[in-house]
Design goal:
Radius of gyration: 23 Å
Helix content: 25-40%
Order of helices and strands: EHEHEEHEEEEEHEEHEHEEEEEEEEEEHH
Number of strands: 22
Strand content: 25-35%
Bound molecules: flavin-adenine dinucleotide
CATH superfamily of the largest domain: FAD/NAD(P)-binding domain
Shape: elongated
CATH architecture of the largest domain: 3-Layer(bba) Sandwich
């Protein structure tokens, strides 16, 4: 397979943090390529919760994850970063000039690597009960792609974390019946969401059952019913339902990256203060990296991307300062604005 044109920086993962890294690479004037295994950019924002609102990203009092991803893509690709989608990076090969990253479809030479791989390959936790595999995609789902598909349906939501509670709250007003079950008494969801859930239960829009687990999902071509059981008494209950939404989390799975010789802590990549991994020239940012005090938030990932890319730029070209300066004063933007206003004048003439 003929290698692609080399890039200064290759970013593994086109989620919010990878996209911000691409923006920074472009702003610093280095070439960049993003490789992502999913069919669209945006990472968890577009794959897991496009309809939800995000409230804790600077500059937006409230923005849907889909709109945030759209803005991030516009900002991240403005300097022409190349994007390779539906390609999972398999290997990291060290070369004299840097590295080559390989996928099933390509070989990508690069001088530095920024890993922004989030939770790695998305590996949802499955319900281990009869009917789950057979009816997956036919009424059984582990994520909400399009809430409109649940309109007027009877739904069983399974889980006790933010995803399960938030989706139960978002969907309840549009469904015929919404039952939320959790295998314990205590929930991991935020206190505010739990207060809203309590109100929905009191209003009768959500039926909440704790200490319950799914025993079997029934149906021929699609889901028609489910049997659940009480894990204290083993008592069974059967509900006629159309959808089982199993939001019981994702297994962190680094996939091929686990065998690259990176220093790992559980399923995260350990980094130093410049977001550098134990392999010189390979940086890790966003949900996939860990250090003391790490927070898995979009806001912290932005800062990490900025630090990683600026250090990578300096490592690639020691004459380039690692401090980028303020964007308000950067020549790259002033030149572009001058060109745009000259084009505007020419068009008006
Ligand atoms: C329901 C929910 C609500 C959330 N709400 C908030 C919130 O309100 N505020 C907040 O700050 N955070 C929130 N988060 C967390 C936030 O989404 C993550 O912190 C953020 O997405 C991390 O961004 P990232 O770019 O590091 O990784 P991701 O968004 O996970 O993107 C990583 C990308 O890397 C790709 N990838 C992985 N391995 C490979 C490989 N080998 N080859 C190619 N591609 C690969 C994946 O396909 C993925 O697209 C929420 C998360 C969930 C699930």
């Amino acid at each position: 397979m003929k290698p692609a044109d080399p890039r200064d920086i290759t970013i593994i993962g086109g989620g919010p943090v990878g996209l911000f890294a691409a923006f920074y690479a472009g702003m610093r004037g280095v070439s960049c390529r993003i490789v992502d295994s999913l069919p669209e950019l945006g990472g968890q924002l577009t794959a897991l919760y496009p309809e939800k609102y995000v409230y804790d990203v600077g500059g937006f009092a409230r923005i849907s994850a889909r709109d945030l991803a759209r803005n991030m893509i516009e900002q991240g690709l403005q300097f022409g970063a190349e994007v390779r989608l539906e390609e999972q990076v398999q290997d990291l090969i060290r070369e004299d000039s840097g590295f080559t990253l390989t996928t099933d479809l390509g070989r990508y030479p690069t001088r530095a690597v920024v890993i922004a791989g989030g939770k790695g390959a998305f590996a949802p936790r499955y319900l281990e009960c009869p009917g789950y595999d057979r009816l997956l995609g036919r009424g059984v789902s582990y994520h909400v792609k399009d809430p409109a598909l649940y309109q007027g349906k009877s739904i069983l939501v399974v889980g006790g974390g933010d995803s399960a509670v938030d989706w139960a709250l978002s969907l309840k007003d549009h469904t015929r019946r919404l039952i939320l079950i959790h295998r314990r008494e205590g929930f991991r969801a935020h206190a505010h969401s739990m207060a809203l859930l309590q109100r929905a239960v009191e209003a009768g829009t959500v039926e909440l059952l704790t200490h319950k687990e799914v025993r079997e999902i029934h149906g021929g071509d699609c889901v028609t019913a489910v049997t659940i059981f009480d894990n204290r008494t083993n008592e069974e209950m059967r509900f006629e339902i159309d959808v089982v939404l199993a939001l019981i989390g994702f297994k962190p799975d680094l996939g091929p990256m686990a065998r690259w010789g990176l220093e790992l802590q559980k399923n995260s990549i350990k980094v130093g203060p410049a977001m550098q991994t134990n392999i010189t020239g390979v940086y890790a940012v966003g949900d996939i990296c860990t250090y003391e005090g790490k927070l898995e938030l979009i806001a912290t990932g932005f800062g990490e991307a900025c630090i990683a890319v600026n250090h990578a730029v300096h490592a690639i070209n020691p004459a380039a300062r690692y401090n980028p300066g303020h964007s308000t004063n950067l020549k790259i933007f002033k030149d572009r604005e001058a060109a745009e206003s000259a084009a505007g004048v020419a068009a008006a003439d």
